[in-house]
Amino acid sequence: MKKASIITIHVGFNFGSVLQTVATAVVLQELGYMPTIVNYIPDRVTYRRYFKEGLKDFRKLIRRVLYFPFHLKNVAAYNGFLATHTNLSQPIYSGDDFAAKCPVADVYITGSDQVWNSIHNEGFDGHYFYDGIAGANKIAFASSIGREKIDDEELHLFKERLSQYKAVSVRESSAVKILNSIGIDSTLVLDPTLLLDKDQWLKIAGERIEKSPYLLIYTPYNIVDEELIYRAARKMANEHGLKIVTFSWTHRKNKYADYTYRYARPEEFLSLMYYADFVITNSFHGTAFSINLNKQFIVYQPSAFSTRILSLIELVGLSSRLVRNDTDITTLPEINYSQVNKLLDAEREKSIDFLRKALG
Fold first, then answer.
1. Residue 185 backbone zone (phi > 0: left; psi -120 to 50: alpha; other: beta)
2. What is each CA distance from 225 to 172, 219, 228, 229, 350, in whole angstroms?
3. Distance between CA atoms of 24 and 31, rounded to whole angstroms?
4. Residues ≥6 apart with Cβ < 8 Å to 333
5. At what angle do helices 15-30 and 284-292 cross, to 10 degrees?
6. Is there a contact between 9 and 20 (Cβ–Cβ < 8 Å)?
7. Are 322 and 313 in contact (CB under 8 A)?
8. Long-range contacts, stretch 68-72, CB < 8 angstroms, 24+ apart
């Protein structure tokens, strides 16, 4: 069996990151490859950085020291999930000899998530282009830039690296335009989480943990106005007799929700998404799973990195689910998933076909 190395953003407490990593591995296995996740750990998510940032402010340092046991609890939950569902390489840190430590493979895949977003990654990171591994068979699958524009200097770096790739695909239409502008042909494909269908995700999800009918809120970052979102959610919940449920990565309860699932594991996220009566999100993967699991949902546009969300909802004809701050969400019509699923199935097949041909 041929071997595939996959580098992606798999670390950090983010449901979407770990689930897209698992999905990519599953699809490659189905195509006859033995996948290994390159366990690259950028400086921004190391313990050293965790405490170094605290040194800038004594009160922040105290908070980080007190929170550290909870931080370790999250690390164990996410790393344990990845260890169960994927094959991880040895850890590789920014200062290591990347080429020497990277698992040897027949094909080297730059995977999904915001691997090419230099703001998110705190600079242009050549590891996500397999810098130092010359003459290798490289493929980009559903990679994300996450922005509509990048400067000329970075464009030059993109062209230099991606000219070495056999095939390039991205998960947002804005990225296609950026790469086309520098002469790099790219194909628009689905995020890997959308390549597994509802039944496949249900096998990975945990059992139902919230027994009451509920509205799920998943707004992990870039929140423009949290109070406004919960005010709209409360109106919807009261009208339909729903409990408001959300997540927290600390011991704190969200003051606006009826119940907060603290330290939720990825399999619990899947369970809460699957059984929700309604979902409100501002997250790309919150949107992707809402669509894939055929949920009634709305998405509030985040304050940054929204191009991937816009590209996805336009692709499946659900642009109307992106709402403004003043939208009365109780008046929105229900989504008829018959046509959406046809579009999704067609795009799923196109995406897998791209990968199949690129591997061949």
1. beta
2. 25, 11, 5, 7, 37
3. 11
4. none
5. 50
6. no
7. yes
8. 70/249, 70/250, 70/251, 70/263
C-alpha to C-alpha distance for 314 and 322, rounded to whole angstroms: 10
Question: 92, 85, 75, 84: which is closest to 7 by C-alpha?
Answer: 92
Token representation of residue 252: 């704190």
Extract the tokens encoding 217.
């809120």
CA distances from 181 to 49, 147, 153, 154, 319 (A): 36, 14, 14, 13, 26
Residue 342 and residue 317 in contact, taking contact as beta carbons nearer than 8 Å? no
Nearest to 223, CA basis, from 280, 266, 271: 280
pLDDT digits over 273-332, tens only? 999 999 999 888 999 999 999 999 999 877 665 778 888 999 999 999 998 777 788 889
The pLDDT, as a whole number, for residue 222 is 61
Q: Tokens 């810098």, residue?
A: 131
161, with CB counted inside 10 A (0-12, 13-18, 19+), is: buried
- pLDDT tens, position by position, 129-166: 999 998 899 999 999 998 888 999 999 999 999 999 99
Contact 20/113 with Cβ under 8 angstroms?
A: yes
Place of tokens 């809120």: 217
Phi-psi region of 99 (alpha: psi -120 to 50; beta: other; left: phi over 0): alpha
Let me know if 123 is exposed, middle or buried by CB neighbors in 10 A (0-12, 13-18, 19+). exposed
User: Residue 104 and residue 47: Cα distance in Å, rounded?
Assistant: 28
> Residue 348: what are its φ and ψ, rounded to 5°?
-65, -45
Whether the Cβ atoms of residue 68 and residue 119 lie closer than 8 Å to each other: no
Q: Give, for 308, the enclosing helix (H) or strand (E).
A: helix 307-315
Which helix (H) or strand (E) segment holds residue 231: the answer is helix 226-240
pLDDT exceeds cutoff 90 at 72: no
Q: Strands of 243-248's sheet, edge to edge?
A: 259-262, 243-248, 214-218, 278-281, 297-300, 322-323
